[in-house]
Amino acid sequence: MKRHLYAALIVAGFCSVQKVSGQQDAHFTQYMFNQLYFNPGAAGIEQGFRGGLLYRNQWTGYKGLSGGGAPQNILFTGSLPILEANMGAGIVVNSDQIGPLNDLQASANVNYQFKVGNGKLSAGLRLGIHSRSIDTKDIRVNDPTDKIYLDMLGASGQIVPDLGFGLFYSSDQFFGGISSTHLAEPKFDFSGAKSTLNRHYYLTGGYNLDLSPNIVLTPSLNLKYDSKVFQYELSALAKFNNQFLAGLAYREQDAVSLILGLTAFENRLRITYSLDYTVPASEAKRPTSHEIMASYFIPMTLKGPKPIIRTPRYRK
Length: 316
Description:
The protein has 316 residues and is mainly beta. Helices cover 9% and strands 53% of the residues.
């Protein structure tokens, strides 16, 4: 019985490891470029299609019990506006691997957009799935004949539905939003080791400051709460000559970060890189994490007949 309880606790620990570190959702140093991951209201907020691909390697060089275990993320996002309907649509696919735990999120996001002042306010809904599986080769057990361990060997991945909601506002100078993920708090159960995706809440915002004709500074913040743990992120990113990017970021009780990037092809292509340095130092972590992201933007124009322009000369 004690062996069974011990095995169940190990699996439960793996299933909750992200919660212990602060959040179950993945965190990204470049959150300012990945609003759609947190908020469905951000889908199609730009006047064109934007697709992005991000890779994150956390605690680079960390080795687990079986030679693996360093958290890794691959995130794909794509969104575009449906101009004639004042709507936006987008997809999010995120692969999250940490130790023996493999999570895959896939969602469709849609919102309705309202003209507010000089910008757009959108209300969005997320419908998706969350898949979880356990790679048992990365689990070390004292008794390989333990019933719970044997049950895990034969267990397949589990898929649960997932919901989210968000409000997002964007203008030339300001962006900000409030959102919640995992609204239904879906549950997983692997041989008695149960885990729940807690409901998460996000509040984010940023402002573009024109320091000179060639320099724009964008300070931003991201506040995260998972019903138990609160964490904040701060950043300041400068854009030089409308082409080069450089900035610093800080994630509470986790890391300070350097962000570098550039844009090309009239700002359509954007490539960014960030380096995290873990603070405070911990023997359970490696000191550095890396993120690299590429995104491409394709502008769109409103279809339909051109508007009639009347002049006083021809007005009756």
